[in-house]
Recover the amino acids of this structure.
């Protein structure tokens, strides 16, 4: 799909992977709606990219619908490119030393990471299906979701996070198959260790230790490299129904 003059919406667009994606799509000519839980953060990135900033909670369907409505009102159409980067990173053992139950944390993680991703996908699919095709293939839109290598290599303490990202990965193919008749592609990117807010608080020695386990290149990924892959997915019409790891060939150890 040609990105130039196409409307895009990026969740989690106020920082990290989402902000880098919003910037790259805008540079390629897209008009971008930057959606984030923080209105201040979304407006800051929107100011850089010439788009609009929208505050929305992806785990709340009403909030997301309002965000899509604003995108249509202010940019003139529903987005044809939707990238879901909103999510939370959580860590907790199933059975902590104090024996406390961790059900609440598990539910919250799934609500944001999995239900939030599905909510955005659901609303995006409805809006895209109503658009006219843009090429001879009948393409109407592209939805790119974000999982994590933890969906396959979940470490101790990542049961909730890995389960939430595993759900995102697992819905990719059935969603792509169902939405194919509308000309909507669905893909998922599974990042490894990246320089984001989640990793920014690591002590230098911890970061060095993590990077030592990365085969090549032996460094954390840059958000711009995630954004580069998103652009390639959007532009390549044969990429559909697949999960792509972007991870320097890392396989996470148990802990």
């Amino acid at each position: 799909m040609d990105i130039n003059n196409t409307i895009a919406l990026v969740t989690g667009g106020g920082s990290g992977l989402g902000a880098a994606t919003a910037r790259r799509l805008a540079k390629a000519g897209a008009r971008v709606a930057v959606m984030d839980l923080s209105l201040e953060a979304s407006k800051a990135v929107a100011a850089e990219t010439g788009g609009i900033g929208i505050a929305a909670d992806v785990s709340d369907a009403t909030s997301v619908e309002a965000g899509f409505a604003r995108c249509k009102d202010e940019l003139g159409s529903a987005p044809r490119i939707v990238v879901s980067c909103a999510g939370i990173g959580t860590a907790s053992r199933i059975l902590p030393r104090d024996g406390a139950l961790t059900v609440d944390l598990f539910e919250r993680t799934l609500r944001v990471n999995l239900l939030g991703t599905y909510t955005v996908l659901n609303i995006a699919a409805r809006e895209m299906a109503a658009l006219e095709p843009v090429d001879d293939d009948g393409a109407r839109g592209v939805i790119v979701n974000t999982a994590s290598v933890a969906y396959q290599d979940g470490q101790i303490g990542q049961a909730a996070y890995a389960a939430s990202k595993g759900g995102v990965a697992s819905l990719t193919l059935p969603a792509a198959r169902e939405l194919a008749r509308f000309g909507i592609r669905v893909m998922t990117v599974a990042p490894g260790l990246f320089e984001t807010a989640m990793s920014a608080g690591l002590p230098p020695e911890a970061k060095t230790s993590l990077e030592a386990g990365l085969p090549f290149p032996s460094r954390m990924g840059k958000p711009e490299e995630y954004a580069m892959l998103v652009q390639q997915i959007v532009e390549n019409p044969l990429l559909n129904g697949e999960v792509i790891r972007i991870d320097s060939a890392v396989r996470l150890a148990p802990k």
Summary: Strands lie at 7-11, 31-36, 52-55, 81-84, 141-146, 184-191, 243-246.
